[in-house]
Amino acid sequence: MTNLPPGDDRVSRRRYARERSARQEAERLLEERALALFHANAELKRQAETLEEAVRRRTEELEAAKQAAEKASAAKSAFLAMISHEIRTPLNGVLGMATALADTELEPNQRDMLDVIVSSGNGLLALLNDVLDLSKIEARRLTLETIEFDPNQLMDEVVALHRANAAEKGLDLLIAGHLPQGRWRGDPNRLRQVVSNLLSNAVKFTACGHVSLDLRMIGDRLEVAVSDTGAGVPEETRPKLFKPFSQADTSITREFGGTGLGLAISRRICRMMGGDLTFHPAPGGGACFVATAHLLPLRSGAAAGPDRACPYQRVLTERRWRILAAEDGATNRKVLDLLLRPLDLDLSMAVNGAEAVAAHRATPFDLILMDVNMPVMDGLQAADAIRAAERAEGLPRVPIIALTANAMTHEVSDYSRHGIDAHVSKPVRREELAQAMAMQLCVRLRARVEDRPQAE
Amino acid sequence: MVFTELLAMAEQAVGEDVVDEVLDGLDLDSGGAYTAVGSYPCSELFAIVGALSDRTGIDAGELQRQFGHWVFRTFEQGYPQFFADKAGALEMLEAIEGQVHVEVRKLYPDAELPTFATRMLEEGGLEMQYRSDRPLVAFCHGLVEACVAHFDRPMQITRTGGADGREALFVIREVR
Question: Is B106 an 8 Å CB contact of chain A?
Fold first, then answer.
């Protein structure tokens, strides 16, 4: 290892002694440092262990807190679902009866009173829907549909919905820009909700001038800008615009009403659709909200043929359809009866699923309206039984529409697995129910027309 | 430190020149240059002890024993803290494993230390089982003797086993 010089080349004794004591000093120093290092290491190790213990404890605490929070959140969702069901059921009665009442002869002041009942009921329903939507969003349970629709037609419908309110305030409601003709896939109901929310806000907060809807389609990106000539949004309140339960000013709540949930919900919906909802001050002081969403092109093969929408009045009066409604609540049966009365249908009632299955077996119906929660046999079991019998005996498939007060999307998605073709949520509105029924019967009418040559 | 102390003892006993001759006469990887803090092959230690034995005519075992005495004196001077709280030789010997070796490992974590399993005897005295990878029983014997001498109370030391130099049982008893 060490190469020592050979021979007798000597160093002085003094020099040798100095070197030797230098070596010993170095050895002593090294031991001293090594010991200091050892103690420093031991201290560090101890600290690391203390820290690890602290981290472990903290992690445990956080885990427990997280579990508690998740449990609370799940309890909240369950509570909301339950409350929603409990509120929707009586609201169904109120709105249904009010609608039926409107069909009768009324004094003008009675009609005014009825209008208040209907608009209050609708307000309550809107509020309930907002709270439910928000809870679904928070529970990450809001899901989107993907169905075929025509964006142009959708926008026309939304604008038509708000035209009366705008006119009442003396506001012009303008549509600028245009969308290319054609059908896309997406969630038209959620899109309608977003645009409707923006239009209703714009009309609400604009005293004079106009509200305009600017439409644009860039590739597969739908852009809807709603601008108004209202007071705009003060700069300091803009950051709060999209936060739930935070209207710009509490005085706004008193003056204009509303929950302050609409924009928060709309933004989340837009983001779920691959777009966003943003605020821009409009030139001249008003507000401008821009909603964007990605739409899906039609599946290849499903050519954008002629519009297959069914004019429901015509379909429903085509002939006297045999309709079976299975509904356990007496009030709800009465509501259905009154709502459907003007349509001149052959309507039969069953009070549970088992009765419905038996009645359909005895004399088959053209369409079945099926409540989901019923005693004896619930709607889903009844649908299962009917589908099983059809398969076993080669019978034609009867359309089944579920009527439900449970508006949770994840439940709705279960229905199709049980052979349910569509669903209408309670409180049932006449328009909505008639549309849904016509849509199903339309398919049946076409099928008959196409079948005829073979039948004869 | 074993190497530096061995050479220091040899220098005192036979003189620097003889030590130089002995080292020059051996083929050592280290070249005979040692520090107290390094570790060196054990074979070099036995080569040096063997050469010194040849040179002086003193039996290698006896050399080891004397070296034990020498190293003990170095301990006394260099690490008085180990002795400060010990009442006697038995207590000191009992503390080697649990105290001295612990401190040694702090400085030299890789040190290959022997083990000293001890047991206090009821009739007064200590049984100590020495085990080592290296045949240094005689060296250990010298250390024990020096330790007894340090506390200035006559004791009887008996050693059984140790033929291979790696394992032996020491019994240390007070002389009444």
Answer: yes
